[in-house]
Design a protein that fits this description.
By secondary structure, this protein is mainly β. It has one domain. The protein is 5% helix and 37% strand. The protein is built from one helix and 18 strands. It has a three-stranded parallel beta sheet, with no helix packed on it. The termini are far apart.
Length: 181
């Protein structure tokens, strides 16, 4: 089995303007102030490696969302970060969330939601102007002590939605469902 390589990103902004792949054998470690900035050339960053960063640390910036919002289908946007990251969770702060109760954090929330299967909301008040919908199997959203999610006041209909599928058999459980709410 191969050894994991750790690449360290000290304080500074690192521009990515071409397609990049982070292989499963690499972990990127972000020091405070280390930021990968996605450039205007709409590169795709295929992330299959790990990340070491704090919950409240911003590590990604720039052109993270590369399409208009799509209410239909499994993915609401085209994201710059794709792949199967080897992470336990993604934090919206990694993607620039303010968590101050007044700034619209919807872009950061969506990026964190779609980067891996688990999104952790650390203690903060997150505002969103677009519904956050859990659309994939085995996707988890975890609120840590004192985390709140609220509407921006715009008429978005719902702040959080869970798309379920009917049971696969007459006696079976739904294919997708919520538990421990």
């Amino acid at each position: 089995m191969g050894r994991t390589r750790i690449w360290s990103f000290p304080r500074g902004t690192y521009l990515i303007n071409a397609n990049v792949t982070v292989p499963p054998t690499c972990t990127l470690e972000f020091e405070n102030g280390g930021l990968l900035n996605v450039g205007s050339a709409n590169p795709t960053i295929t992330w299959n490696g790990g990340i070491k960063a704090g919950l409240f640390q911003r590590i990604f910036g720039g052109n993270l969302i590369q399409s208009a919002y799509n209410r239909i289908g499994d993915t609401p946007y085209t994201f710059a970060l794709q792949g199967s990251p080897k992470i336990d969770y993604a934090s919206p702060f990694w993607f620039g969330a303010a968590g101050d109760g007044s700034t619209d954090d919807q872009a950061a929330l969506h990026c964190a939601q779609w980067f891996g299967n688990n999104m952790v909301l650390p203690r903060a008040t997150y505002v969103t102007s677009v519904s956050l919908i859990l659309r994939r199997d085995h996707q988890f959203l975890r609120f840590l002590g004192g985390a709140f999610l609220k509407s921006s006041g715009a008429s978005i209909g719902q702040v959080l939605g869970i798309r379920g599928d009917p049971p696969l058999t007459a006696a079976g459980e739904p294919a997708r469902y919520a538990k421990e709410l």
